[in-house]
């Protein structure tokens, strides 16, 4: 029998159940590392993203001493890595002993400098390029990050596809073609006409980012006031890139997406802006593809894209040991080895004229003298673009606006307007 | 048991002594033989009444700590300026709610959430019901079949997202290759709003259909077999039996499945989050769900106050929908049932 009363009780129970499930369904992950291994050694974790070239260095460090075991945690993209960093920074626990931080996010995290150990040490004074150290020093003189690499950019290209299009293939001749952005895009228009089905560059986003990095004050001015909406230089980059996409220069893919990764194997595009650390990424994605080369040139002079720091979060259990490890990993000798492995170009002064660096070649890029080329490219960088605390957030919105045009969801004008609305929203 | 009754004792004691000053002694004395047996009796009564609650209390205490406390704390955060890293700021009343409701991405996320919810939950429950009906028949190697429908549930959502990410690649995906092989135009799974919702819903369905089917199967097995026999004698076919006997008889379980999938469906996060590398639900936020929107506010915009406001709005939406679904499915059930007045069984 089902009396009205049991009905009501059942209804109440079901409602209660619904409430319970609704409130408990949100789960969260917990930390697992206790900081020591089973045999009593100190366990240090190093969290990085993309390719830092640390795999062999960490093995070397582990073999060098007895009481510390180092493990690397690699995130696929800088975004993912940063999300994790923010989450655990807010939670106050769960971060690795050493966290890599990309320069785009750097000033947002500088506002939280208390959360990181002051790494200043007489031993490392003068180790890095001045601007690299200055950016990592707080107003009261604490050094919260050790520089790893910088991102001087060259142009990577597919010599085999260039040949198909009747363009020069030799890297010196190619360099002459790309003196400024106009000539680079013009060559692209010629290329896509002759080789249909293959785009000129890998993504609108990556190219836009390269151009934005050449603007000293792009999204924020000296006082970190947001100027993105009224900055004619930003608007110009936006207009150029979206016009190019209409001409078929871009693959229309987002960097780091699965299709983007797959396009390396499929003759998806012929060139891309490549900072040193991108060499390792290209080599990984384009494994088995022959014809990659790098030209000692960058449109519009020089440009720096990315580069990172190693920090030691104050919440770690073994900050002393972590500092030692960070100091070792960012020493010039080690950075040169990382460069040889994955192309991460040193920010360390001493490494720059080290014959091990300048003499290094890269077999995948047709034995190009990558050390020499990137050293030249680093010298050609006229200034380091200013990136305030909101840079990464605005940049994401900027990239999305470009992507919407690529995907045909909005016209260039509509996308620009919604970009302005997004800036407004970020506050 | 012993520990329980000794713990209750002082309660009974104070209860008895508090009776005397009120002057209600004489009628009580008449009913009770003496003060001591009265205590005993009342103690036993209390024991019978209170002990069950003591036994079920661990759940409710836990629920209070891990369920109600975060709920309350989230409400507290939602009425303050609260940065992810900077922590608690000024009290600002309902300002966070106002800002959320004025944000166009909130409404966009709401639309996406409902669309993905409908595309996932409806087919999911229907397929699970049919699947359970099939598994309830006399199959060879029944256990194998029953176990195998649970297999997708065991695979981690991140792995599912990875595999489906390959299947639903815009340019180089397996699904598009098949579609082109048939001779149709490729679908832009990551660009077109509806296509992206279908792709995400299929990930969700892949994961949850088998799980729900097993729950429904368990309920079906409790249906007495003789009912089917008499139905068969009356000339009812398989389908008719399923619709007229099985489904009405497992109605409470169906309601349970509908409510849990409503709750799950409105909270979809991992699948759309991992559908691209940016994690914002596409360049135009075509597949940003409410939970992803919440995450964006909290961890990208780093405004926990607004994120908490979204959490509360989402909570209210879910409660409303769970109750609505409960009401609708009960209603539908009793309309289809033998007797509208609830006199069945």
Automatic annotation (TrEMBL), chain B:
<feature type="transmembrane region" description="Helical">
    <location>
        <begin position="50"/>
        <end position="76"/>
    </location>
</feature>
<dbReference type="Pfam" id="PF00528">
    <property type="entry name" value="BPD_transp_1"/>
</dbReference>
<dbReference type="InterPro" id="IPR035906">
    <property type="entry name" value="MetI-like_sf"/>
</dbReference>
<feature type="transmembrane region" description="Helical">
    <location>
        <begin position="304"/>
        <end position="328"/>
    </location>
</feature>
<dbReference type="GO" id="GO:0055085">
    <property type="term" value="P:transmembrane transport"/>
</dbReference>
<dbReference type="InterPro" id="IPR051393">
    <property type="entry name" value="ABC_transporter_permease"/>
</dbReference>
<feature type="transmembrane region" description="Helical">
    <location>
        <begin position="147"/>
        <end position="168"/>
    </location>
</feature>
<feature type="transmembrane region" description="Helical">
    <location>
        <begin position="114"/>
        <end position="135"/>
    </location>
</feature>
<feature type="transmembrane region" description="Helical">
    <location>
        <begin position="208"/>
        <end position="228"/>
    </location>
</feature>
<dbReference type="InterPro" id="IPR000515">
    <property type="entry name" value="MetI-like"/>
</dbReference>
<feature type="domain" description="ABC transmembrane type-1">
    <location>
        <begin position="110"/>
        <end position="325"/>
    </location>
</feature>
<feature type="transmembrane region" description="Helical">
    <location>
        <begin position="249"/>
        <end position="270"/>
    </location>
</feature>
<keyword id="KW-1003">Cell membrane</keyword>
<keyword id="KW-0813">Transport</keyword>
<feature type="compositionally biased region" description="Polar residues">
    <location>
        <begin position="15"/>
        <end position="25"/>
    </location>
</feature>
<protein>
    <submittedName>
        <fullName>Sugar ABC transporter permease</fullName>
    </submittedName>
</protein>
<keyword id="KW-0472">Membrane</keyword>
<keyword id="KW-0812">Transmembrane</keyword>
<comment type="similarity">
    <text>Belongs to the binding-protein-dependent transport system permease family.</text>
</comment>
<keyword id="KW-1133">Transmembrane helix</keyword>
<feature type="region of interest" description="Disordered">
    <location>
        <begin position="1"/>
        <end position="35"/>
    </location>
</feature>
<dbReference type="GO" id="GO:0005886">
    <property type="term" value="C:plasma membrane"/>
</dbReference>
